[in-house]
Design a protein that fits this description.
Chain A is mainly beta. Helix content of chain A is 12%, strand content 55%. The longest helix of chain B is centred in the N-terminal third of the chain and has 28 residues. Classes of the chains: A mainly beta (486), B mainly alpha (185).
């Protein structure tokens, strides 16, 4: 196409216009989008977090809405819970042997719950309503390095992208040929923010002595925003004597290519979970949960801006409307079943707990495209099958109550293997956790939980392994939970 | 598209079936829990009717003096009495035998009664057990932002066919994550 005569090209545009007016708009939806909502978050309960979220076999407070709804059956008093959290994410990035670091943080109200046990003459029947944060989507990344071998400009200008962005910024000649194929400094930053929250309606009943069964219905809402600023600069003067659009003196001495992409998600959806919890005599419990697939309905708006700058100060700006969504694109992301089992054991005041969760990420799917083609969705689903696999997450926790002080000390560990099939262990998410809690008064308990997580990842600015950032990610989360028992 | 819609509907129906089967099974099989129904004559909570024969996971240390408060349903009362709890306090014993004649000398064994004729003269440690016995409740750069901008222009205003076009392929969701399609070769 790039060799077409420009006159013929505009005729071709007319055909394209009519094509896109009456057909689905094609774009690329990725595995990372599915994983963004598919990987479980750290929840919203301080006690649970302090114990490594190893809570399926405990779940005897309002956080049962998140971990195991059967745990509601163990609650004997009316309970109101509120909490907030602080989340900080840091990324050290290595990009063409240059290191950069950046961080992003957020503080949010993460939990409001009410638990109401119904009066019984035997057994237990408990209902709960909860608004809690299930996942934090905050993150950030910055990078800068000199890439000799490729450029985003040339990538955009080549099949299959065939974007007109380089052309519109006078970075190509009229035949869509660009000299900017490498030897540019690439830099930028990505700032992600958002959270996923649930309105949860739960119920549990003691179906046999010491055997509790519960279920919940979650109404999901949330938001996500990613701001991507990307630059390519001729820092070493490779193109100081080149006109990117020959014959146009304003294009002499390319200096900067800048592209800004803002991705804005509105998230809604629903899901359900059932759980079972059995108390074995006086000191042990076992729990099992089945998390049904979560359906996230995504309403997506992409906004694109950009410009180029040349030696004499000339600046060409993109017409944002050409490359931004004129109306939101919609689709659904469906997560796989999650089957989990856990136990807890009270050894003379030292409570030990553990759990494992099976998740087959290859069963994630994009569905219900509106504004994108079915072919695009099918391709994305094929990539998911090809790249992702099953994992077993594991959680371990301990809690010890200092008798004379009434102070509860907690420790925990959790591991979330990478959903990518061939990732080495350092790409698994690992967290160590700790926390304290105290019964501050007869009816008030205060808990503080902390988690520190670390793992590796990598990402591509474009293409595959031609402009790659290698990331060392650490996260810190602090949760404060206050519970009133009536 | 229709196929996708059918799949989604089938999944929804499947989940709803799961959620309905459980309560129905409980109704058919009989449920352990007996809900208290208000009596028109005495609309009082079933404070004295609650049958609490379940297990207790936490020991008294966990709730301090409020163990009974947290282990009794809110409608069963009164449960407001505070019972100070000191887990390290030893249980009292009226046996003072082990205090008598405690002169600091040896507590020789075998002095309380003669050694048996057959068998070894083992030590007799009996009588001291109550000392220290615990109350055992354990079961419970972007560089070059050139500001000297000139001649700000937009090329190809007649490129109006590009809106939402294939151009977006390389743009969307390029937020530093993996480009899945070709990401892992």
């Amino acid at each position: 196409m790039k060799t077409h005569n420009i006159k013929h090209l505009y005729g071709y545009f007319a055909v394209l216009v009519s094509f896109f007016l009456f057909s689905s708009i094609s774009f690329s939806q990725g595995v990372s989008d599915a994983l963004r909502v598919g990987i479980d978050g750290l929840g919203a309960n301080a006690r649970a977090l302090g114990m490594g979220n190893s809570y399926i076999g405990l779940s005897d407070d309002a956080s049962a809405a998140f971990f195991n709804p059967a745990g509601f059956g163990l609650i004997k008093g009316i309970e109101f819970t509120g909490g907030l959290d602080y989340y900080n994410s840091s990324t050290n990035t290595t990009f063409f042997n240059n290191s950069s670091s950046s961080s992003n943080s957020a503080t949010r109200l993460n939990n409001l719950s009410l638990v109401l046990p119904f009066p019984t003459t035997r057994g237990s029947l408990v209902f709960g309503i909860s608004y809690h944060q299930t996942n934090t989507l905050d993150g950030q990344l910055s990078f800068s390095g000199f890439n000799k071998n490729s450029s985003f400009i040339n990538f955009l200008n080549s099949p299959p992208q065939d974007s007109y962005i380089p052309y519109d910024l006078y970075l190509t000649d009229t035949n869509f040929v660009t000299p900017l194929t490498g030897n540019l400094n690439q830099s930028g930053s990505i700032l992600n923010s958002g959270a996923i929250n649930n309105w949860t309606f739960s119920g549990a009943v003691e179906v046999a002595q010491n055997l509790y069964v519960g279920m919940n219905l979650n109404i999901i809402n949330g938001d996500f925003k990613s701001i991507n600023d990307y630059y390519e600069d001729d820092t070493q003067g490779f193109y100081s004597n080149v006109e990117t659009d020959p014959g146009n003196p304003n294009t002499l001495g390319f200096q900067t290519f800048y592209l800004k992409r803002v991705l804005d998600w509105g998230i809604s959806g629903w899901n359900a979970k059932v759980g079972m919890l059995y108390q074995l005599k006086n000191n042990a419990r076992i729990g099992i949960t089945i998390q049904f697939p979560k359906t996230y309905d995504i309403k997506e708006q992409l906004t694109v801006n950009g410009h180029s700058i040349f030696a004499n100060g000339t600046r060409y700006d993109l017409n944002s409307s050409y490359y931004s969504d004129s109306s939101p694109v919609k689709y659904s992301i469906v997560t796989p079943y999650e089957i989990a089992g856990g136990f807890s054991y009270n050894l003379k005041g030292l409570i030990l707990s553990g759990q494992a969760t099976l998740i087959d990420y290859s069963q994630m799917q994009f569905e219900n495209p509106d504004g994108i083609s079915q072919q695009t969705v099918d391709d994305a689903n094929k990539s998911i099958k090809y790249l992702l696999g099953p994992v077993i997450n594991y959680n371990l926790g301990a809690e010890y109550t200092i008798p004379d002080m009434g102070l509860r000390l907690r420790l925990g560990y959790m591991g979330q293997p990478s959903p990518y099939k061939n990732d080495p262990p350092e790409y698994s998410r690992k967290y160590i956790t700790g926390g304290i809690g105290i019964l501050a008064a007869k009816t008030v308990s205060i808990d503080l939980g902390y988690a520190h997580g670390w793992w590796k990842n990598y990402g591509d600015n474009y293409g595959s392994n031609i402009s790659r950032t290698y990331q060392d990610i650490t996260v810190d989360k602090l949760i404060l939970t206050t519970t009133f028992n009536f | 598209m229709v196929h996708q819609g059918e799949d989604k509907m089938k999944r929804k129906v499947g989940i709803i079936k799961y959620l309905l089967v459980l309560p129905v099974a409980l109704l058919l099989g009989g449920c352990y829990t007996v809900l208290w129904m208000p009596n028109s004559d005495t609309a009082q909570l079933p404070a004295n009717q609650y049958d609490n024969n379940g297990y207790d996971f936490y020991n008294q240390d966990y709730y301090g003096g409020y163990w009974s408060y947290y282990n009794t349903p809110w409608w069963v009362g009164p449960v407001n009495s505070y019972t100070p709890y000191s887990p390290s306090e030893p249980s009292r014993s009226s046996d003072v035998q082990n205090l008598r004649d405690n002169t600091g000398g040896r507590n020789d064994v075998g002095t309380e009664r003669p050694a048996m004729q057959s068998g070894s003269a083992g030590r007799n440690s009996s009588g001291n057990d109550n000392i220290g016995k615990q109350n055992n409740n354990s079961n419970n750069s972007p560089a070059n932002n050139n500001s000297n901008t000139q001649n700000t222009q937009t090329r190809s205003q007649n490129n109006s066919g590009n809106n939402n076009s294939l151009d977006n392929n390389a743009l969307r969701n390029n937020n530093g994550s993996r480009n899945s399609g070709s990401g892992r070769r």
